[in-house]
Automatic annotation (TrEMBL):
The keyword Secreted does not apply. Its cofactor is a divalent metal cation. This is 4-hydroxy-4-methyl-2-oxoglutarate aldolase. It holds the Pfam family RraA-like. Its EC number is 4.1.1.112, 4.1.3.17. Keywords: Lyase, Metal-binding. It catalyses: 4-hydroxy-4-methyl-2-oxoglutarate = 2 pyruvate; oxaloacetate + H(+) = pyruvate + CO2. Homotrimer.
């Protein structure tokens, strides 16, 4: 799967998440249905979702664009792998980037920060979110590789 080929063939039904993402992990690409989370500098709901079966889904987190604290580290990335999540897209920062780079996962994030997040339980899963010029809804599909992150309302491949 290549996002460049997908956009060439399906430009009318794809949207580019236009953010300066950094890629982490050893997986070359991901494709899967979206599960959404909206939170700010608190990863409690992220942990809760990653503790459940991913079934090949991609966790898309609107962290409000904060790069002050990390919403994901190596322990949560390992939990994602263990529970069958295809990958993560975060409008936020991560930490433990060297360790995550060694994992068979693909994570998109805005930046890194060594500071861990709060654990106060703030956040909601399963809501429509908006970032990077795109509306993201649970059940939409994400296609991502080295060239970018694309969203479709339906499965394309």
């Amino acid at each position: 799967m290549k996002t460049a080929d997908l956009i060439d063939d399906h430009a009318d039904v794809l949207s580019l998440v236009h953010l300066p993402f950094r890629r982490f992990g050893s997986r070359a690409h991901i494709a899967g249905p979206i599960q959404t989370i909206k939170c700010f500098e608190d990863n409690s709901v992220v942990r809760k979702e990653l503790e459940s079966p991913g079934n090949g889904r991609v966790l898309v987190v609107d962290g409000g664009g904060s790069t002050r604290v990390a919403l994901l580290g190596d322990m949560l990335a390992g939990l994602a792998l263990k529970n069958g999540w295809a990958g993560l897209v975060l409008n936020a920062a991560i930490r433990d980037s060297v360790e995550i780079d060694q994992m068979d996962i693909l994570v998109y994030a805005l930046a890194t920060s060594p500071i861990k997040s709060a654990k106060d339980g703030w956040g909601k899963a399963g809501e429509d979110i908006h970032f990077g010029g795109v509306e993201l809804r649970p059940g939409d599909w994400v296609y991502a590789d080295a060239d970018g992150v694309l969203i479709s309302e339906r499965r394309l491949i």
